[in-house]
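From the methods appendix. Each design record in this collection lists the tokenized structure first, followed by the designed amino acid sequence. Records were kept in a plain field format so they could be parsed without special tools. The example shown here is representative of the layout used throughout.

RECORD:
FOLD TOKENS (297 positions):
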């Protein structure tokens, strides 16, 4: 819990909340029950929606004065434009890792952040959880070495080289990233998979909200419209507004190049994408066909 004196400058203005507001930030560990084939494990269930649900439930259970606020007076957030990791570090939940994610001593980085803004001053409470200024990644650079795009360096993330970022980004994916795209449709957890802090994690919240099981086959993305793709994922993490059907279809085209035999199976569909109105889809299709012609894929 952080009061206004500990919040980043202009944070409350950005959040459109009173200047004496307080923030409660929490880390919600998730359990990787299975590895996704093409969708990152954290997106196989709608943890974002579950976080907001639990935050609202905590307000109701806390009673007065928290439950006395109207819906418009409270601000809930998760995966928001707010500086969530900075808030979490300030609240003592963990430290900022070399992979730029929040790392906790108990759960590593296998979790998501969420919080609420309350329009009144509260006594500050810091959850230290064994975190001190001496705890860090030290000399470990496994995430930097493992990152396919080379996006990580000295605790900084170059989003232009990040596969996770590009799975929901507009436009044409750089050729250097197409080469290392793999079979992913959404998400990348390589920098977490190799992190020593995550080796002992495994315990976390088990939910059944927005479950994607089974995953749609690759052919689904190549043979359905972007509108139908979004409809398929309604209520799931991939149904979030910032993830477009065009993003998933473009990603699937690149995935087909890295999936043996897939191009021959769906060559007609991929050729049709060369005339797509979407720049990213059009570019991906042309690149895949060009590369497959050279490699004989």
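DESIGN:
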């Amino acid at each position: 819990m952080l009061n206004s004196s500990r919040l980043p400058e202009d944070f409350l203005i950005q959040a459109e909340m009173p200047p004496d507001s307080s923030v409660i930030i929490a880390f919600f560990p998730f359990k990787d029950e299975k590895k996704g084939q093409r969708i990152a494990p954290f997106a196989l269930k709608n943890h974002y929606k579950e976080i907001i649900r639990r935050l609202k439930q905590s307000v109701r259970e806390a009673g007065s004065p928290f439950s006395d606020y109207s819906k418009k007076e409270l601000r809930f957030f998760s995966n928001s434009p707010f500086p969530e990791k900075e808030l979490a570090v300030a609240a003592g939940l963990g430290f900022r890792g070399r992979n730029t994610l929040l790392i906790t001593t108990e759960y590593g980085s296998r979790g998501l952040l969420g919080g609420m803004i309350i329009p009144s001053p509260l006594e500050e409470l810091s959850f230290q959880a064994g975190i001190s200024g001496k705890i860090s990644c030290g000399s470990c650079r496994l995430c930097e070495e493992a990152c396919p795009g080379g996006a990580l360096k000295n605790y900084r993330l170059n989003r232009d080289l990040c596969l996770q970022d590009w799975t929901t980004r507009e436009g044409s994916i750089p050729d250097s990233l197409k080469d290392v795209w793999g079979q992913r449709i959404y998400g990348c957890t390589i920098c977490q998979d190799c992190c020593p802090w995550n080796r002992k994690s495994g315990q976390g919240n088990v939910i059944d909200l927005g479950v994607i099981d089974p995953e749609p086959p690759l052919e689904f993305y190549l043979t359905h419209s972007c509108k139908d793709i979004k409809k398929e994922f309604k209520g799931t993490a991939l149904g979030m507004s910032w993830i477009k059907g065009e993003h998933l279809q473009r990603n699937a085209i690149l995935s087909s190049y890295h999936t043996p035999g897939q191009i021959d199976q769906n060559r007609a569909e991929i050729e049709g994408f060369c005339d797509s109105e979407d720049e990213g889809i059009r570019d991906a299709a042309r690149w895949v066909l060009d590369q497959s012609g050279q490699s004989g894929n």
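APPENDIX NOTE: Residues 95 and 134 are 10 Å apart (CA to CA).
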